[in-house]
Design brief:
The protein has seven helices and 23 strands. By secondary structure, it is an alpha+beta fold. It folds into three domains: 92 residues, Nuclear Transport Factor 2, Chain: A (Roll); 136 residues, Nuclear Transport Factor 2, Chain: A (Roll), CATH 3.10.450; 117 residues, Glucose Permease (Domain IIA) (Distorted Sandwich), CATH 2.70.70.10. Strands 11, 14, 16, 17, 18, 20, 22 and 23 form an eight-stranded antiparallel beta sheet that branches. It has a five-stranded antiparallel beta sheet with strand order 1-2-3-4-5, with helices on one face. Helix 1 packs across helix 6 and helix 2 packs across helix 7. Bound molecules: zinc ion. Zinc ion binds next to loops.
Length: 432
């Protein structure tokens, strides 16, 4: 129930560029995953601790120290159990510690003269917030408490490496890459930054002079203060033409980390299959007899029949590249989501408030209303997805599922987000 001519969208030359950019993206992502694999799992709860320490330090300055530590060197006849039993903690916590240690494959054998270091939070029910076990003279395993689910996450670390939380910000003067390099940000982090924003930003076209970014990430330094490794990005904000695109690292399930925007939506956004509510799929992608022209022709989109005036949503975050007349497509909106995907919405009766070329939209934002403008036999939305310049079947797309935190998960995320915001202000204060 629609129609319009293929030449409505004339910018074919950019499709070639999109493809090239996508390939670059793929290469970069591959390089990134390889290097990332070597870094193993990351330290998870330090943000919380840093924040907590700062706050509590103020409150308990004159009282007993909240945080204490204990070092123990294993002796002949010790077992992990006997060592854990020496700690001044409750039964349940002892069991948790012992189970954690016994689950660590590299700690199967306990030797004499192995160093253990436990860190206590004396105000907490479960006191141990962190502990380390030396595996040999150069390596140790660090266990950090995940407060949210009362468990530990382990990480092998080279000894004497200190983890720093780094904050950097700058205005982009030439390219984002060059600006980042001149701030001393390691390539690993820059690649990760680009990968994270790759779901919503086309770095070749969307980043302009005088845009800016802020970033908080982990860095490991050796005894000479030389950076030997990088860790995770904890927070980032990319400001493009005065729009903030923020992302927060968050562990939403044990050992499952993702990045979310300030509303708790994963940045790994999929495109919505049906960018309209209460509609009926009336014509799918593929060959069909054309309702107006009468002959068989490829239908390069999906039609959803819905009453005139039904709101149409942006199926993903992105930038409006067209909001105007598309000939057979009538009033149409075209959105560019990233360097790979674009979507088109045709036959609208009118555009959403503020929807015009160059505007950034969020997934779910109303961009227009169902109509029957252009070559159309009745009110419906004609929806197209363009992948690397090629129209594809939106109903068969396999994209990463974009997690949305709701209810209790959302509450927990808010707490984590506030901690990161506090950490950020602290780091900014230190800069000045
Ligand atoms: Zn159609």
């Amino acid at each position: 129930m629609k129609i319009y001519k293929i030449k409505e969208y004339k910018e074919y030359s950019i499709f070639l560029w999109l493809a090239i950019i996508a390939i670059i993206g793929l290469v970069v992502t591959t390089i990134y995953s390889n290097s990332k694999n070597q870094q193993s799992d990351l330290i998870k709860s330090s943000i919380g601790n840093t924040y907590l320490k700062k706050t509590i330090e103020e409150l308990t300055k004159n009282l007993e120290p909240r945080y204490t530590s204990l070092t123990y060197i294993s002796q002949a006849g010790d077992t992990y159990e006997s060592i854990v039993n020496k700690l001044d903690v409750g039964k349940k916590e002892k069991k948790l510690l012992l189970d954690t240690i016994l689950n660590e494959n590299t700690l199967k054998i306990l030797r004499v003269n192995q160093k253990f270091k436990f860190k206590f939070d004396n105000l907490s029910n479960y006191k141990i917030i962190e502990f380390k076990i030396e595996t040999d003279k150069k390596n140790e395993i660090l266990f950090e408490k995940l407060v949210a689910n009362n468990s530990f996450v382990s990480k092998k670390i080279k000894k004497n490496f200190k983890k720093n939380i780094v904050y950097k910000e700058t205005i982009i003067t030439n390219s984002l890459y060059n600006s980042a390099v001149s701030l001393g940000i390691k390539p690993n982090i820059i690649i990760e930054f680009a990968r994270l924003y790759g779901f919503q930003v086309d770095f070749q076209r969307d980043v302009w002079k005088d845009d800016s970014f802020q970033i908080i990430y982990e860095e490991f330094v050796n005894e000479n203060d030389k950076v030997v490794d990088t860790g995770d990005i904890i927070f980032a904000n990319l400001n493009l033409q005065n729009t903030d695109l923020q992302l927060y690292k968050y562990e939403y399930e044990k050992n499952k980390v993702d990045y979310f925007d300030e509303t708790g939506k994963s940045i790994k956004k999929t495109l919505m299959k049906t960018p309209i509510n209460g509609a009926r799929l009336s014509s799918s992608y593929g060959k069909r007899k054309h309702p107006i022209l009468g002959y068989t022709k490829m239908h390069t989109g999906t039609d959803f029949a819905a009453p005139k005036g039904t709101p149409i949503m942006a199926s993903g975050d992105g930038k409006v590249t067209k909001a105007g007349w598309c000939g057979g497509g009538g009033n149409c909106v075209k959105i560019k989501h990233n360097s790979t995907y674009q979507t088109v919405y045709a036959h609208m009766s009118k555009f959403g408030r503020g929807i015009k070329r160059g505007v950034r939209v969020k997934q779910g934002q109303i961009i227009g209303y169902v109509g029957s403008t252009g070559m159309s036999t009745g009110p419906h939305l004609h929806y197209e997805v363009i992948e690397n310049g090629k129209k594809v079947n939106s109903q068969k797309l396999k994209l990463p599922s974009g997690k949305v935190l709701r209810g209790n998960d959302r509450k927990k995320f808010e707490v984590s987000k506030i901690k990161i915001d506090v950490l950020k202000s602290n780091l900014i204060t230190k800069l000045n």
